[in-house]
Amino acid sequence: MSNPMVSSLLNKLANYTNLTQGVTEHEEYENEEGVTKIRSPQMGTFIGVYLPCMQNILGVILFLRLTWIVGTAGILESFAIVVMCCTCTMLTAISMSAIATNGVVPAGGSYYMISRSLGPEFGGAVGLCFYLGTTFAGSMYILGTIEILLTYIVPNAAVFVAEKKEGEAEAMLNNMRVYGTCCLALMALVVFVGVKYVNKLALVFLACVVLSIMAIYAGVIKTVIEPPDFPICLLGNRSLQNHNFEKCVKTEVIKNVTYTTKLWELFCDSRHLNATCDEYFTLNNVTEIQGIPGLLSGVIKDNMWGDYGPSGMLVEKKRQSSVPAQDNSRDIYMPYVFNDISTFFTLLVGIYFPSVTGIMAGSNRSGDLRDAQRSIPFGTILAIATTSFIYMTCVVLFGACIEGVVLRDKFGDSVKKNLVIGTLAWPSPWVIVIGSFFSCCGAGLQSLTGAPRLLQAIARDGIVPFLQVFGHGKANGEPTWALLMTAGICEIGILIASLDAVAPILSINGMFYPVSCVQFFLMCYLFVNLACAVQTLLRTPNWRPRFKFYHWTLSFLGMSLCVSLMFISSWYYALVAMSIAGCIYKYIEYRGAEKEWGDGIRGLSLNAARYALIRLEEVQPHTKNWRPQLLVLLKLDSDLGVKHPRLLSFTTQLKAGKGLTIVSSVLEGTYMTLGAEAKSAEQNVKSAMHAERTKGFCHVVVSSNLRDGFSHLIQSAGLGGMKHNAVLMAWPGAWKQAEDSYPWKNFIETVRETTSAHQALLVAKNIDKFPSSEDRLGEGTIDVWWIVHDGGLLMLLPFLLRQHKVWRKCKMRIFTVAQMDDNSIQMKKDLQMFLYHLRLNAVVEVVEMHDSDIAAFTYEKTLVMEQRSQMLKQMQLSRNEREREIQSITDESRISIKRKKSSVVETLKAPNTLQAQLITKLGTKSHGNLNDNAPATPDHRVHMTWTKDKLITERNRNRSEPNVGVKDLFNMKPNQSNVRRMHTAVKLNEVVVNKSQGAQLVLLNMPGPPKTKGGDENYMEFLEVLMDGLDRVLLVRGGGREVITIYS
Q1: Structure confidence by residue, pLDDT tens digits, 691-727
Q2: pLDDT at 946 over 60
Q3: Is residue 738 a contact partner of residue 704, using CB atoms and an 8 Å limit?
Q4: How crowded is the C-beta side of 646, counted as CA atoms within 13 Å?
Q5: Residue whose C-alpha is closest to residue 422's, from 411, 110, 248, 307
Q6: Which of 52, 83, 180, 722 is the right S-S partner for 361, CB 3.0 to 4.6 Å?
Q7: DSSP designation for 466
Q8: Contact call for residues 114 and 584 (beta carbons, < 8 A)
Q9: What positions does the domain SLC12A transporter C-terminal occupy (predicted)?
């Protein structure tokens, strides 16, 4: 055995550091001359986790305020406060241990755990709040250091001295500001010069804390044998400040002569026996009792219950008789001990809770531990158990050993300005004074060391853009800018924390601690518990912590305790802290960088989405819940960009209904060859959606032809109950000028498929003339031409559009058409009543269409339409002939080559031809084949060769028919059915143009397509005539169900 156990322990203690791993790395960087040595972590549980947690938990509250809390709240209520706070931190430590053992936790500690478990929004919000809490805690520790210095060590060092008693508090506050600023500057300078100096002092600070606690327990044991001599002076039942007099008597007899004492002079206007004295002083006698009666004195009975009171209340001994005075107006000028602030239970909870913080010290240094998976849970929980035992026993022992009036004396005025807890310590009160002074110094240095690194970790993650400057520092990574920011916030705390009457904070007479700081710590612990609970309930595959002694119920209990303590300590500060965190959350969500850390909120969203989708698919949505779930069919240009971005703008304006939006497009080809182009197109569409502020999903598919692609999207877009119920597309404006008929046939097939799928169809004409989302339309109208009832969609769309700021100022007009035998007046009344029940505000107009003779223009328009159709057929047949001639030449050359080959090759042709015929007989045709106008053979088989004889026969047969058509082309008469349809379209267009030519938008019923494909082109002509002369038109075809109801 090379090293004895004791020497090994001493060696580890000599190398003890209370700094996080990032700080240690920076220190090593400074010590090395350009060489970075990589060494394995050597810290164990005791040195790496237990001692740092102990040092961070035990601190200023224990030494300066715990005795006052026990005296004010009583032993029972103080014990309840300690148990409640310690239980909260213990449950949080269990959750933290589970998270910390689920992977390495680098610098950032709680921020890293929350952000990687709940996402950057929660992590950034809680991390910044925790940073503010840690920074203000630094202010608290610095003010605590100055309080000890000026109150107990060198009281004569005060810069400001009050001339009157009522000015003492203000003078003390000014001294705190001056000395606090100097102390802050000195500490910040030490941290800036090098954290290695803080590291070297860590052992000294830890030793002071341990020795001070040992001195307290030693003093308690000594009270059993020999209680210390700390007499206190009572006037009646009132406790007196005895630092201005030595003897607790009014007069004394020296050589049979009665002399007045210093106490007499404090209450009388002169030192003579016949002087005028304070009434209460005259009526009551002074008594002297021991301030530390001891453990066996039975004083525990008097200290069992609390003694709350308002600010300025006198500290009085219970069960002590006294004679009340009539006039108490001058009590404030007398040397009594007063309450400096109003006291109540929730206030004490807020003051005490900071004394149990610091449980993250072990998890922050996981990279420095030999076995972090074992050390963090064991060391942290053991440290909390140890400190909880210390706090609980101190509450009981203080109440059992110290007189109640001394416990309630916050600053030790009744024991000659000694620290109250110091009067109990052995061998001397100076052990506690010096120990608490260095403890506060160490805690302040730790705050100034840890808080900048927390801010640096948040800044380097880039989740808050304006904080990125604080991610930079010195060459070794020291967070210089973050340190300056932290020092500035600490200075604000030092300067304004004393404004008890102005700023709603807690004043502890020189040590001022904002309650919001407590809220920030509690909020951090709340989200640590939430992170553990979410991960446990989601059962994500990556959730495999080595620490097994956790359960989601414990995490929820910890969350409940955190929320309860937040509102118990201060409900309005809890709301303020939550509001601050909420604002930071929304800012990060709106402006922060997108981070994907595999957080639990994403998994929670997936589970919630799965549950909601399953519930949605169980039942059909009610009419009251109907909203347009849009499938937007986009066209892409040659550069894979969006051809009509205003279609996305219109989608955004229509989505005041907050429904589903799926933006899709199709690339023609195979996915193997166009996979990269499809991804690029999808990114372009997403960029266009972001530019137009369209919220929804994007999907670009690759198909053998566009028709199949759009058909698949109409059939299969969406998931479960979140499927589209309406299709939005642009009108093919240049369909007449197209070289082939594919665009308008594609459009008509889309109309047919949406009708078969019982989906609504919205077709926007002149979509590029529609307003963008940045435009604001002034006075204007949205005109609805309600010709056929389609479920109410025609009337619902203008209402949804007017919810958007672009269309908000536009008024809605509804036109309906009456025939000769209709009662126009009654129709208008009925329609107005119908709109009233639908809660829609619109102007109603009934337009009468008279039967008239069919004008010559209608015949001419119909004739031109039919002639154009015949011409297209001729052009298509001529093109087919040319293709077949080329094919015959190619086949003849191939036959001449094949004749030279062996007969074996010729025998192989038969099976191939037979196979092609069998495939064709299966009848599997794509949409692309449906648009092929080549005449089919009677047996509907595909011939592998086209012989010359067949070519001549087919050419003679085909030429006979078109030649007849050409002769009669200009002598033909229009079809009467087409004439009637054209007449209706022309008359309706005249009425619409007359009434709505100046409207901002015109909505029209879209007639259904013809049942046979022979009239497809005529259908396009009818629609073109119907919309002629109108700038912005939206054709609407309902999906076959009611979408609006008069019921609530």
Answers
A1: 888 888 999 999 988 888 888 998 888 887 788 888 9
A2: no
A3: no
A4: 13
A5: 411
A6: 52
A7: G
A8: no
A9: 645-761, 763-904, 975-1048
Phi-psi sector, 189: left (phi>0), alpha (psi -120 to 50), beta: alpha
Q: Tokens at residue 616, please?
A: 């949605």
DSSP letter for each residue of 40-52: ---B-HIIIIIHH
Provide the pairing of β-strand 1033-1037 with 760-765: antiparallel
Determine the residue type at 456. Answer: Q
**Parallel, antiparallel, or unpaired: how do β-strands 661-668 and 630-633 relate?**
parallel
Give the residue from 445, 446, 439 showing the smallest Cα distance to 421. Answer: 439
Strands lying side by side in the sheet with 286-290: 238-239, 231-235, 286-290
Q: Which two tokens stand for residue 359?
A: 């449980």
Q: Residues of 641-659 as b/e, b for ≥16 C-beta within 10 angstroms?
A: ebebbbbbbbbbbbbbbeb
Rounded Cα distance between 65 and 83, Å, is 17
Residue located via tokens 């003492």: 168
Least confident range from 178-187, 429-438, 702-711, 849-858: namely 849-858
**Two tokens, residue 481:** 């800018």
- Residue 171: CB atoms within 10 A of its CB come to 16
- Residue 829, both tokens: 């009344």
Helix (H, G, I), strand (E, B) or coil at 955: helix
Here the tokens at position 630 are 């849009």
Three-state DSSP at 320 gives: coil
SS3 341: coil
Query: Which amino acid appears at position 367 of this protein?
Result: G
Q: Phi/psi zone of residue 108: left (φ > 0), alpha (ψ -120 to 50 degrees), beta? A: left
Digit-coded pLDDT (tens) for 646-656? 999 999 888 75
How buried is residue 325: exposed, middle or buried, by Cβ count under 10 Å (0-12/13-18/19+)? middle
Spatial separation of the C-alpha atoms in residues 86 and 565, rounded to whole Å: 12
Token duo for residue 705: 């032809």
Q: Is the dihedral of CA 817, 822, 825, 828 positive or negative?
A: negative
- Distance of CA 686 to CAs 654, 662, 709, Å? 18, 11, 19
Q: How far apart are CA 250 and CA 813, in angstroms?
A: 98
Higher-pLDDT residue of 1007 and 863 is 1007
pLDDT for the residue 1015: 67
Rg of the chain in Å (alpha carbons)? 44
DSSP string for 209-254: HHHHHHHHHHHHHHHHHS----EEEEETTEEB--SS-S---SEEEE
* 8-state DSSP, 509: T
Which two tokens mark 329?
A: 């107006």
CA distance 406 to 419: 10
- pLDDT of residue 113 exceeding 90, the answer is no
Compute the Cα dihedral for 213, 216, 220, 221 and give only its sign: positive
Tens digit of each residue's pLDDT (9 = 90 or more) over 804-844: 888 988 999 998 887 767 778 888 888 888 888 888 888 88
Q: Which of 71, 408, 412, 402 is nearest to 242 (CA)?
A: 412
Q: Which of 129-138, 514-523, 691-700 has the weakest average pLDDT?
A: 514-523
What local confidence, expressed as pLDDT, does residue 534 receive?
86
Residue 163 has pLDDT above 70, yes or no: yes
Write the single-letter amino acid at 986: V
Cβ contact 315:238 at 8 Å:
yes
Relative to beta strand 1001-1005, strand 781-786 is: parallel
For residue 777, give the 3-state DSSP assignment. Answer: coil
Tokens describing residue 990: 């005249």
Cβ–Cβ < 8 Å for 712, 604: no
